[in-house]
Write a structure and sequence with these properties.
GO biological process, one term (chains A, B): response to stress
Protein name (chains A, B): DNA-binding MarR family transcriptional regulator
Radius of gyration of chain A: 16 Å
Organism (chains A, B): Ancylobacter tetraedralis
CATH class of one domain in chain A: Mainly Alpha
Structural class of chain A: mainly alpha
Pfam families (chains A, B): MarR
Oligomer: homodimer
GO molecular function (chains A, B): DNA binding; DNA-binding transcription factor activity
Distance between the termini of chain A: 18 Å
Strand order of the largest sheet of chain A: 1-2
Chain lengths: 116, 116
DNA sequence: AAGGATCGTTACGGCAGCGGATTGTTCCCG
DNA sequence: CGGGAACAATCCGCTGCCGTAACGATCCTT
């Protein structure tokens, strides 16, 4: 069965979540960066710059820059595709998995505390 | 009863949501801006710059700038507090209400489409 | 072997956000 | 009534992201 949620609950959820995120001085990713990160971790590999760009409807430089930033944070890593050396394969990292695990738990906790 | 949600569902929810947001070329607000907007619309007035800043754990200039930006988008408006003219009262707008209504509906739609 | 196509990255100029310090009003209290 | 406190806005230099346009490397086709 699907998750039932009323609009007012949805907004409260977003509110609590955004407050947690803003306070947390975990480096707050931009919406685009988060979208890329989630795509890499939730969708089936392999992931390329080109694929992610078209998936999100943004330009390739946006993806490259986001990978630069998140790479510096060790949330993702890059590797040349040896089969086709033009491609770059985006890989998951332990730190990235932990980051998302924590994020998921935060959402669950906030949702649980939501008034019915 | 509380909203029950598994971590994997939570991440999928965020994923779909971020994709919708990124594609939508609705001006995507930064996490901080969204947090301020939601606070203004979900918490009981009156809202002041100082109050919002301490609520979010950010500095006052951050709030002022966010209000500048969102004011230009007509998502909020400002008014001097006549009782204490040092204060500025942040007010809701019709456009802001519509923006959040739409956002809430998006969350609901995404949640409903989530695999159980 | 060569031309063009594809891929990711980088360069560029511009815009917006940041923290910290300062300013100008307005209020409060001794 | 005068000096300090409180409040929001502004200024400063900096950093990071944006879109467009190039670029180098690699592949593919003929």
């Amino acid at each position: 069965m699907a998750i039932e949620l009323r609009p007012s609950q949805a907004l409260r959820l977003l509110h609590e979540l955004s407050l947690v995120q803003v306070r947390d001085d975990a480096p707050d990713l931009s919406p685009r960066q988060l979208a890329i990160l989630l795509s890499v971790y939730l969708e089936t590999p392999p992931h390329t710059v080109r694929g992610l760009a078209s998936r999100l409807g943004v330009t390739k430089p946006v993806v490259t820059r986001a990978l630069d930033t998140m790479g510096a944070l060790h949330l993702v890593s890059r590797r040349r595709d040896e089969a086709d050396r033009r491609n770059v394969i985006i890989q998951r990292t332990v730190e990235g998995a932990l980051y998302l695990e924590k994020l998921g738990d935060q959402v669950v906790a906030v949702a649980r505390a939501l008034p019915r």
